[in-house]
Please model this.
Amino acid sequence: MSNQIRAELFKLQRNKTFWVLVLISTGISALLHYLVIIEWWQMQNTAFDRAGLSEFNAISTFTVPLFFNLIISPLAGFYISNEFSNSSVIKNQIISGSKRSHIFLSKYLVFTIGSIVLTIIIPIMTAIIEVILLGHGDILTPSTMLYLGRAYSLFTLQYLGYTAILILIAIITEDSGKTIIFSIVLTIVMFVIEKLPNIPIVSMIYNNSIFNQFSEVFTFSMTSGEILKSILIALVTLIIITLCGVIVFNKKEIK
Amino acid sequence: MSEYILRTSQLSKKYKNTLALDDVNISVKKGEIYGFIGQNGAGKSTLLRIVTGLSFSSKGSIELFGENNPSMLSDAQKRTGAIIESPALFPNMTAHDNLEVHRLQKGIPGRESINKTLELVGLSETGNKKVKNFSLGMKQRLGLAIALLSDPELLILDEPTNGLDPMGIAWLRELIKKLNREKGLTILISSHILSELHQLASRYGIIHQGKLLEEISAKELDEKCRQHLRIKVDQQAKGATILESTLSTTDFEVMPDGTMKLYAYLDDVRKVSKALTDNDLVIEHLSQNGDSLESYFRELVGGVEDE
Model:
């Protein structure tokens, strides 16, 4: 499988969409952080406010599925789906005799790495750099760093489940446009469910999903039980969706 | 080890209500060039897709390099190279990068194999040119380079001359012969252009409407396509006796429709005609024929369509 991962990393490096998205993510992130830090854009009552990191408020934009999906769904479409449709290069991978599950997992892994770079690493790095450059470095204390470390570790765990959902959509649709549209629809549905008046069964499912956890993990103070629950939700989602992906890919007829 | 590189047993593929393959048994021997002949939609690509793992059979089994356990087939597939339908390439990458992806996937050590393969297919001068700017022929060559990069033991080519100009076709033919001759590479090549295969294959599999009609060696085919006199007389049994007694030859065969194929006396037709008429036979048909692969194929397929 290491061969597959190396090949996928090479393809990601050569993928134009990825580099365009790196530029977009860096640009948007730098701009939003700048606007927040100079207080031109005032965001209030965010989790970062409560943690004493109000200069980091712009990051909260990147933690909303409706927003970060807009950045990573094109990657899923143009990096994953395109291999099935436009060029059919997926054929070469299958013909080469690699196990389908290895092919799927290597794609998932590298797509996730690319997505983490785009919507987690870039926003955090630009935030830290701008905070320091604009003279607010003193907010980066051990306790705030610990908070960021805990919150982002849990967030990344939830994120693994989300990228598994995206790659599953990409493989089922085999079309970049459909992948983007279906993923946007999914995030809109989740957004609507979050805002819906209390329907017990729906609330119960939503509250125990990664979509709720995307915001919950940024709570300033979390009990051990809450952390454990968050980890369990992420792992169960990851395992179930990845297994579904492997099964779908194993049964897929490659056109 | 078995002399067969590839064998299928009662391989069938059903798409909803269409039977694309119907109990197909083909066998490809080590070191041969196997020509897989059939019209468009006959089931050639379907079979090759199943063999290469792109598709799954509804029934039957495959034995590749002696391995017939479905879960272990992927290991045997590592020893094959293939182009199925059209070459699968990254349009925004160069030829070198396309091969690099494949090299990494297969875990082939060292980059020198890339330059060697590019040279083999005549693409060593493409430099930084992106594949999207390649001609169809260049893309086909690059597809072949990908298939050859890992030095496979079995090369599967599905309609490889699609998009190639006459020069390209001649080049490909020579390359296939060279690979077979020099490296002992076993090649399974499908085409609906029969003349292409006639100059290449050492054995043929003829498929029609999902059914394998015949497997025949080039030698046997040549034998069947020999120049002959096609004779039809009013009394076939007597005609055969006269050929044996008067013309002293047994080099003929009687076809199911009663015509006789006489492989002797090709340059003395008058003698044949005289021998038959002198013995009170009415000659209904007498002509000199020689089947081409095309006419043989037509005859075979026609027989099926008439049924």
In short: The two ends of chain A are 23 Å apart (CA to CA). The CA atoms of residues 32 and 81 of chain A lie 31 Å apart.
